[in-house]
Amino acid sequence: MTETAAIRAEAARLLALFEGQGAQVAETSVLQPAETLLDLYGEDIRARAYVTTDPHMGEAMLRPDFTVPVVQMHMADGAEPARYTYAGEVFRKQEDDARRAPEYMQVGYEVFDRSDPAASDAEVFAVFSDILGGAGLRAATGDLGILLAAVRGLTTTERRKAALLRHLWRPRRFRALLDRFSGRAPQPEGRAALATGDPLADLDAPIIGLRGRAEIEERIEALREDMAAPPIPEPEVALLNDLMSLRETVSNVCEHLRDLAVDLPAIGDAVDRFCARASALAAHGVDIDALDFEGSFGRTTLEYYDGFVFGFYAAARPDLPPVATGGRYDALTRVLGRGSEIPAVGGVIRPELLLAAGGKA
């Protein structure tokens, strides 16, 4: 059997296992309208996706993942509750790592159910854990909902919170902004000149570029507002850093998170959801005494995750990307639902990585 045939056979095996969980097979087009993805991620998505032009569709992208089209399909006419599975190729540019293929298979499982989100999180993780249980993989979990709530609760301007939330999935940029907003790092060179005078007052030449005078003036005013804002209080920065650096087992971390919530009340509801999920995981037979929790886990994945996140890794093959990843993406259903929403959680397995990690589970 060729390598490609073996990967497709493994994908078919995984698809059948997800079907056995009651999931309906979903089919999505390889060519997706670019507009939706650009609205979700902005122009940054162009650096990760293959963009082309179709005479009827207009600007389009080769499918970078399945979740967005599956959510669109469900929000258009899906029943509730619903479970879907799918298998097929996705396409992502790998400019930072030539060893990784730009085209690879994904097999996924998605649950849309508003009755008990904690139970749905536990169900999806338990299904993946059972399917992958014989492959010798290490599981890790996180909770982006807690981080998002912590940032929203910071004592600072709404503009600064929006900037931090926008870059939460870009750890280096997030750190640079947090250091600047907290006064740990200086303002970028040249901004002090904007605090006085009118940079456009003596401008005789016409303004050349995509931005007009009104937009430039609005941007200058935003920069001045930022420079005048007081720094984020140091205790809040310390608590956020503590949260992002947290590494514990799921069974032990709930008490620690509740302690943090005393000084950072904004995360209280998210911590309650975490603790409910921990109980649901245990009820599904997951050994939470051995399940890792990492405070920053999931911060380099696609930006639609907004709650529970998980991954499975080949401990003996640190050179491999995650064999499986997943998480909760309630906000995505809100964006694509055009007025409706439903709690949703799911994940994907890469069959070629599962085989590379030591064969099928």
TrEMBL record:
InterPro entries: aa-tRNA-synth_II/BPL/LPL, HisRS-like_core, HisRS/HisZ. The keyword Transferase applies. One of its GO terms (biological process) is histidyl-tRNA aminoacylation. Residues 3-170, 221-349 form the Class II Histidinyl-tRNA synthetase (HisRS)-like catalytic core domain. One of its GO terms (cellular component) is cytoplasm. L-histidine binds at D65, F66, T67, R92, Q106, E110, R299, Y304, Y305. GO terms for molecular function: glycosyltransferase activity; histidine-tRNA ligase activity. It holds the Pfam family tRNA-synt_His. Keywords: Glycosyltransferase, Transferase. Coiled coil: none annotated. It comes from the Bacteria. This is ATP phosphoribosyltransferase regulatory subunit. It comes from Maritimibacter harenae.
